[in-house]
TrEMBL record:
Stored SUPFAM superfamilies: NAD(P)-binding Rossmann-fold domains
Species of provenance: Bowmanella dokdonensis
PANTHER family: DEHYDROGENASE/REDUCTASE SDR FAMILY MEMBER 7B, DEHYDROGENASE_REDUCTASE SDR FAMILY MEMBER 7B
Keywords for the protein's UniProt record, in alphabetical order: Oxidoreductase
Protein name, per record: SDR family NAD(P)-dependent oxidoreductase
Length: 260
């Protein structure tokens, strides 16, 4: 049976990869994204794969724009089966002393506040589904925090915390929650790193190129975890074992990370 799927940041990268999997299942898909050209192209791609997709251009950092987008969704659908809170940016990758308040605000507005806002606004539609599920896209950076990533890591750690709370609150209503924490893989995330952090952007791009997984593979792993009702999804094997090491022996993990 066709499901009703909403994906933020669904016009490119991981969001589009998630949408492709659901399109092949014949699902109904709403993608929310700020880029109109990418959004329209994504709709054509998804419909060619067998999906039934729609695109809404919206700035997820605007509470008013979010409400307008949600109004359009609920005027079209009576319920939502799956919500993927995927949209996010890297922001500044630099030492804390080089950062400004607005750098933190920009990243948290999209990476955290938008996820909380959309989930809250869509709860009535999720409650109308027989098997609703919320999947929040965090990052291994929220579990394994490296130097110069204080803003991004803090935002993703907050997403993990939010997801843990939602798991408890929504579980009572039989609404599933998954939080996915992928490591580096090839996306456009590095493009959101400001020009003044050019060296950091280059380093991130190199790490993405070395990833053993591509966006389609990561998307498949995340969707399988959501299908199975798995809470924590760690797609990358090496980083998954590093997280296990952190839990068992934090000092050993920090010694290892300083050598990387």
């Amino acid at each position: 049976m066709s499901q009703y799927i909403l994906i933020t940041g669904g016009a490119h990268g991981l969001g589009l990869a998630l949408a492709k999997v659901h399109a092949r299942r014949g699902d109904q898909i709403f993608i929310l994204d700020i880029n109109p050209e990418n959004g329209q192209q994504a709709v054509r791609t998804l419909n060619a794969l067998g999906g039934h997709s729609r695109f809404i251009q919206t700035d997820l950092t605007s509470a008013q724009a979010c409400r307008q987008a949600i109004d359009e969704v609920i005027s079209t659908w009576s319920h939502i089966d799956r919500l993927y809170n995927n949209a996010g940016i890297a922001g500044r990758i630099c030492k804390l002393e080089q950062q400004q308040d607005e750098d933190w605000q920009q990243v948290f507005e999209l990476n955290l506040f938008a996820q909380a806002r959309l989930t809250r606004l869509l709860l009535p539609q999720l409650r109308q589904s027989a098997k609703a599920h919320v999947t929040n896209i965090a990052s291994m950076a929220g579990l394994l925090c490296g130097s110069h990533t204080s803003i991004y890591s803090a935002s993703k750690a907050a997403v993990i915390a939010l997801s843990e709370v939602l798991q408890q609150e929504l579980g009572k209503e039989k609404i599933g929650v998954t939080v996915a924490c992928p490591a580096f893989f090839q996306t456009a995330l590095a493009h959101s790193i400001p020009k003044q952090d050019a060296k950091a952007r280059l380093a991130v791009e190199k790490l993405m190129q070395r990833s053993p997984l591509n966006a389609d593979e990561v998307a498949t792993i995340i969707i399988e975890a959501s299908d199975q009702g798995q809470f924590l999804c760690l797609p990358h094997r090496r980083e998954r074992w590093m997280w296990y090491l952190k839990r068992l022996h934090p000092g050993a993990l920090y010694s290892l990370m300083r050598k990387l």
